[in-house]
Design a protein that fits this description.
Layout lengths: L2 H22 L17 E7 L4 E9 L3 E6 L2 E6 L3 E6 L10 E6 L4 E9 L3 E6 L2 E6 L3 E6 L27 E12 L3 E17 L3 E16 L1 H7 L5 E14 L2 E3 L7 E21 L8 E21 L4 E12 L6 E10 L10
Antiparallel strand pairs: 1-2, 1-5, 2-3, 3-4, 6-7, 6-10, 7-8, 8-9, 11-12, 11-19, 12-13, 13-14, 13-15, 14-16, 15-16, 16-17, 17-18, 18-19
């Protein structure tokens, strides 16, 4: 063999060896590894323009497509077919689904899931949001929850959990009667307006924050006219109380909703007390007396109220209120009737 032939043979052998080594290092097709922190693994719901909804784990996005791991397997979806992608995250992946929860103590709740952690299940019920300790959880039943993988369900459905709005605030108008205000005034009539908003809801009670105003009118006691200013003297007068108050009502209601509620309402107030007193002597006008005064008093109150549902958005009730004023001012109490405009605080059997 010539020298030139030997050189050619060596070059051929070297080329074959390099190609073999390169072939042994060629990576195979890549598969999704849940433990790979560099890969996408977002829990999403994909809304398609044709109306279908697909949920799963988003593992890749390219220039024109996305790749999803769903219950039906690996899906490659063109971006031109996608209306939107919603990132739900694992703690919120069931948010909005209607469920019935049974606890180990026998109590049951129905509502929509809001959030779940390793220890707490948050549920939005007809009487407010509650947190359930999962150690007390016996069972959880899904109630007609839409299947996101179904082609028949649409994200614009009227009962979509994302469309639900709950307004737990309420407005209360009340009218009351008080027998007396000290010894000089009696027959008090009151009008009040209060607005409540929930602060914290439990299984059978709700704590509110409230604020409002109250106007009370007292006439002069007729017995005072007769005994003290009898004869040819005409006595007249009145007391008007104008109050602004803040309160923390505590509402007790049936665990599974109901037609009635009971409230204990402690409050603090600022009250303007305005008095007017007149004595008229028909025979001696020069002796006529006209006195008036206005003072600011701080006070406290305690109400006990009970009401019934009147439809889903209204209630009617009655109660007893006690008012205490500072500065040696007389205390008074009244019996009240009231109506409330509300939403979401009652769960009616026929609703």
């Amino acid at each position: 063999m010539t020298l030139r032939g030997c050189a050619v043979l060596v070059l051929v052998l070297l080329s074959l060896q390099i190609a073999s080594a390169a072939e042994g290092q060629t990576p195979g097709p890549r598969t999704f590894d849940p433990g790979d922190t560099t890969a996408l693994r977002d829990q999403v719901v994909v809304y398609l323009k044709e109306g279908k909804i697909v949920d799963g784990v988003l593992i890749a996005k390219g220039r024109g497509v996305i790749v999803l791991i769903s219950a039906d397997g690996r899906l490659t979806i063109p971006k031109t077919n996608i209306e939107r992608i919603e990132y739900v995250g694992l703690p919120n992946s069931e948010k909005g689904e209607r469920v019935r929860v049974e606890l180990v103590n026998g109590r049951t709740y129905e509502g929509r899931l809001q959030r779940e952690s390793g220890t707490i299940l948050s549920l939005d019920t007809s009487f407010g949001a509650i947190d359930i300790d999962k150690t007390q959880l016996l069972s959880l039943q899904y109630l007609g929850t839409p299947d996101y993988r179904s082609a028949e369900e649409s994200h614009s459905a009227p009962d979509s959990p994302r469309k639900i709005r709950r307004n737990f605030r309420e407005e209360i108008w009340s009218a009351g009667y008080s027998s007396d205000f000290g010894t000089d005034y009696h027959g008090g009539y009151s009008l009040a307006y209060t607005r409540w908003a929930p602060i914290r809801s439990g299984q059978a009670m709700t704590l509110h924050g409230a604020g409002g105003m109250e106007l009370t009118y007292f006439g002069l006691n007729k017995d005072v006219k007769k005994t003290v200013y009898s004869g040819g003297v005409d006595a007249s007068g009145r007391a008007v109380l104008w109050s602004l108050h803040a309160a923390t009502p505590l509402t007790f209601h049936p665990v599974d909703g109901g037609l009635y509620r009971f409230h204990i309402v402690p409050s603090i107030s600022g009250t303007l007390v305005s008095r007017r007193f007149e004595l008229a002597y028909p025979s001696f006008p020069s002796n006529n007396v006209k006195e008036s005064s206005t003072s600011l008093r701080f006070g406290a109150g305690l109400d006990f109220l009970f009401d019934f549902a009147l439809g889903e958005n209204n209630s009617v009730g009655f109660g007893f209120r006690q008012r205490y004023l500072s500065g040696g001012e007389s205390h008074y109490s009244d019996f009240v009737l009231y109506v409330a405009r509300l939403r979401g605080l009652f769960a009616l059997p026929w609703s």
